[in-house]
Amino acid sequence: MQLSAQGSFVALATPFDRKGRIDWKTLEKLVSWHIANGTDGLVCCGATGEGMTISETEKKKIAAFCVRAAGNRIPIIGNSGTADTLRSVRLTEEMLKLGVSGTLVVTPYYNKPTQRGCILHFQEIAKVGLPVIVYNNPGRVCVRLEAETVAKLGEIPGIAGYKDSTADLALIRKIRQLSSIPILSGDDDHTYATLKEGGRGAISVIGNLFPKEWKTMISLALQGKWDESKRISDQFLPLCKALFLEPNPQCLKFAMSWMGLCKEFLRLPLVIPLDDTQRRIKRELLALMMPQFRSRFSTVSA
Q1: What residues form DSSP beta bridges with 136?
Q2: Are 107 and 143 a contacting pair, CB within 8 Å?
Q3: Which pLDDT score, from 0 to 100, does residue 289 have?
Q4: 113, 148 in Cβ contact below 8 A?
Q5: Residue of 204, 126, 190 lying closest to 158 (CA atoms)
């Protein structure tokens, strides 16, 4: 299925059972639920999907499973970013064979490459022929892609988009001045602002909980209906912040469990959130589920 880096993509959480095994039945239900709720695409085994504790064999199995479950109804995006270029290329080749629509590739972590090293890294991966979404998340990998670097990456055939998790609007603004590469927000609490700066969508965490509403917020922004879009964004902002009180996806998994979407089980070293965090998350979820909120939202989206 062809990939267009625009709209509401969701960084899909990976459901586990009590023993830490992948819960395939729940995963299938989640894929179907997202399709029914209008999600534009699903990203498998990223940070939200606990990709660092999932083996490459499991990553390939999850990607293939989601492709089959989606049945060409929405694009499935794999994750083939590692700290080693050759390993990333080989995993990307495997993802291409599995039929995913694209792959998310984070900047190489731990070995802290230069900007030139990052460009060559992504260039080699893009040669595989699977559309690549470049992921800039310096908080997790200790390497920050500069605007000029992103602009150069946007000129490489096969680079389909750029996911930004820097929370730096000045950087996004400069990238937009230098390049037409599609920008996707990777920070839920900055998604509206990113869209205002010319972003084309998001790869969200909160979309795991409220896919239809988050899709509506993004769609309204892309239509230039900024007031309506901001009203929805503002309503969800407290929950967006609550979901990151502890390392992602600890808070998300708890919220999904509380909403009956999957069990709260994580793989170590991730753990269930503290009691205070749980109370905050439940408070924000309850506020969003109040009839008054539903009534206001129906008026906005009508």
Answers
A1: 164
A2: yes
A3: 86
A4: no
A5: 126
To 10 degrees, the CA torsion angle through 73, 229, 237, 143? 70
Instruction: Round to whole Å and give the CA distance between 70 and 302.
Output: 28
Q: Residue type for 128, please?
A: V
Q: Model confidence at 295, in pLDDT bands (50, 70, 90)?
A: low
Look at residue 43 and tell me if it is in a domain. yes
Q: Residue 248: inside a domain, yes or no?
A: no
Per the CB < 8 A criterion, the answer to whether 134 and 161 are in contact is yes
Give the position of tokens 């946007």: 154
- Domain with 38, as residue range(s), is 7-223
- Per-residue CA distances from 265 to 12, 45, 74, 269 (Å): 15, 15, 27, 12
202: CATH: 3.20.20.70
Residue 91: inside a domain: yes
3-state secondary structure of 202: strand
Q: What is the pLDDT of residues 28-77, one digit of tens each?
A: 999 999 999 999 999 999 999 999 999 999 999 999 999 999 999 999 99
Q: Please, are residues 219 and 195 in contact by the beta-carbon 8 Å criterion? A: no
Domain assignment present for 46 = yes
Helices (H) and strands (E) in the chain, counts: 13, 8
Could you tell me the two tokens for 140? 């997790």
Task: Describe the crossing of helices 169-178 and 147-154 by its angle, rounded to 10 degrees.
Answer: 40
Q: Could you give the residue numbers annotated as active site?
A: 135, 163
Our measurement of the distance from residue 31's CA atom to the centroid of its chain's CA atoms, rounded to an integer in Å, reads: 14
- Residue 149, pLDDT score: 98
d(Cα 275, Cα 73) in Å, to the nearest integer? Answer: 39
Both tokens of residue 40?
A: 């534009």
Q: How far apart are CA 92 and CA 96, in angstroms?
A: 6
Q: DSSP secondary-structure letter at 199?
A: -
Total domains present in the chain:
1
